Write a sequence for this structure.
């Protein structure tokens, strides 16, 4: 199994570290960095064992034939990871959370 992140997702994750700190979700930059690193590690190590669902048409702007899985990181936040899967490769196309995309699922 291999997990590959699109350039857009890599940029999003990099920005997310800063956003989490600037918006005071975390009091220390190191904590925000570790949160994102933990999310990526969890994706890398468990995506194959997660129950994947077919992504709704709304998400076709990130690619056709997408699937998604969920990662609950706290009582208030669940992350949705959208990907293509082929030949044992997960190509991550988009990551969003329940605060900004749950109405489309």
């Amino acid at each position: 199994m291999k997990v590959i992140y699109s350039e857009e997702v890599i940029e999003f994750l990099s920005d997310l570290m800063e956003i989490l700190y600037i918006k005071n979700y975390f009091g220390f930059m190191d904590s925000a960095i570790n949160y994102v690193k933990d999310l990526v590690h969890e994706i890398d190590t468990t995506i194959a064992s997660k129950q994947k669902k077919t992504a709704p048409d709304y998400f076709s702007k990130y690619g056709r034939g997408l699937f998604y899985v969920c990662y609950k990181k706290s009582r208030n936040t669940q992350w949705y990871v959208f990907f293509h899967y082929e030949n044992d490769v997960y190509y991550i196309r988009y990551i969003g959370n329940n605060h900004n995309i749950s109405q489309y699922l």
Summary: The two ends are 27 Å apart (CA to CA).
